[in-house]
Amino acid sequence: MAEVRNIDTRERILDTAERLFMAHGYDGTSMRQITSEANVNLAAVNYHFGSKESLMQEVFRRRLDWLNDERMRVLDHLEAEAAGQPVKPSLIVDAFFGTLLRMADDKSRGGMTFLRLLGRTLTDPSEFIRAFLAHEYQHVMDRYKEALFRALPEVPKAEIVWRFHFMLGATSYAIAGTDALRLVTDWQIEAEDSVDRLDRLVPRLMSFLIGGLRAPLPQFS
Hints:
Blueprint (H helix, E strand, L loop, with lengths): L1 H23 L6 H8 L3 H7 L3 H31 L6 H13 L9 H13 L3 H25 L5 H19 L22 H16 L8
């Protein structure tokens, strides 16, 4: 029973921290807020995680472990189906970014709360989080980078790297839950298109990402 209680306490702390970090950011969230909302004492947090920094890392690790494994599984499947031929670029983009976006519908994987936390963190990361995410993502990034190089042999590798960078930025901004769209409300878009609807955000974003990947190469003067 004690072991079950420890697991329940650990998950409750992680769920609470995930929600608060999403709402207030890492620096804007105090350990007192976390312990109060999780209904635990500071000793429990220290017992399970040791520090606020370690807690933040575990919040990400429990979601990113599954996400990275799923991205690799999908890419393995696509490459097996391609039977030695390059995978289509649109399928690679969907495997990487679409797999992330589809987490929004899965509350057991953090749902939109985790997506917004990830988006917010990627747009303004603390140094230790930047290093942590780079380490967690590295093997996945390398596999997808090589898949894109094979899929787009006519595109300089530097351009592929930059375009992937832009796609990461656009995705991070889109899922961060910012109110930037309100800045352009005088452009007279329909009300149903001005709200944060995932059923419209996902196809819009995927279309934008694939279009950017396929855009004409820049001409440098």
